Amino acid sequence: MGSFPRAFAEAWPVLVVILFGGLSTGAVSITPPEPPQVRVITELRIFGGQVDWSPSENLIAYDAPGWDGYYQLHVMAPDGTGDRCLTCAHPGLSRGHHGAPTWHPGGRYIVFLAEKASHPGSSYESLPGFGQYCDLWAIDPDTRRVFRLTDVPNVRGNGILMPHFSRDGYALSWTQMKSPPNLLDPSQRQAAGFWTLRTARFDVIGARPQLSDEKIYEPVADAFYENDGFTPDGTGLVFTGNPGGQSVWQSQVYILDLASGAISAQLTSGQYNEHAAYSPNGAYIVWMSNQDNGASGGTDWWAMNADGSNKRRLTYFNKPGSGQYRGKVWATDASWSADGRSFIGYIQNNLITQRGPIVRVDLQ
Question: In what order do the strands lie in the sheet with 51-53?
C-alpha cells in the first residue's frame, strides 16, 4: 500500500465500490485485506500482566505484581508515562490480587477481577491469569470508587477470567469456572478446569454499575472455555477452548453465536492457539500460537483476516537468530489502539509465576 495513509488504504476497496459500482451491472470482487506487519516493538514494563487499551481515553489499563507479590491494577499512557496504581492500598478492597482489566468504551469504568477477602485455596490460585476465588468489580479510574458486580460461591472450583465489554458498552462477557483443574486427567481435557461463557447487561443505575440478565453458554458440556470478547457486531463471542474433545493443550479459537448458543466457526487449527483480539475495524484478529515453535515451544503473535483466512506470523520471540528473540516465552493477552496502528501485549517468561513484560507493537 506504499505511501498511502493506513486509514485511506483500508477504506480504498469500499470507496471503489461506492464511486464506480454503478458503472457496471456485474458483481464487484474485493480482495480481502492483507494482515498487518510489525514495524517496531517497544518494551514498556519489565514486570506486567494483562492489558486493555481504552478506545476513548487512549490510556492503557494493566495489572502488575507489587512488592508483596499481589497483582494490582494500573493505568498508563501508551508510551508508558503517567503510571497510576488504582488498587494499591485501596480502602474498599481486600488484600489480594486485582487485575485482568477491561475498559468500558466510554472510559468511565474499568471492570477487573478481585480476589475474595478469604477463601479455602491459596492466593496463587487467584492470580489474574488463573482466576479462582475471584469476583468481578468495577472501578471509576478518576475517583477510585469501587463496586462489586458478582459474588461467586466461595468454594473450590469457582472463579472468573477474562472480562470484556461489547463495543457499545451495553454488555459484559466473561468466563466462569464450573469444575476445578485436574492435572491427572489422562485426556488432559480438564487440566485447566471446566468453564462456561457468560454475558450480562451492564448498566449504571443510581451512580452504581451493575449486571443483569446474565446468560450462560456451554455449547459442549464439560470443556475449557476462555472468553476473548464480543465479535464487532455484538452477535457472537470469540473464545479459546477444547469443545472438540481435545486436550486443553490443543485448544483452538472459535466463534460462538449468541442467538443459538452454538459454535458457528473454528478459526484456527493445529497445535495451541489462544487470546484472539479483533482490530478496531473488524478486519483482522491478532492471536497467539505456538505454530512453527514446536508443540512444547513458546508462543508468538499472529494475525489473520476475521474469517480465519490469510494467517501471518507477526513476532519471532521464540526464533533463535531473530532480532526479536527472547528465549522461550509466551506472547499472551493483547489489545488494540483505537486507530488500529498498534497493539499492547503481555509476554510471559514463566507460566508458573505468570511474570513477564508489557510491550507495545507498532504496525506498518
Answer: 51-53, 60-65, 71-76, 84-85
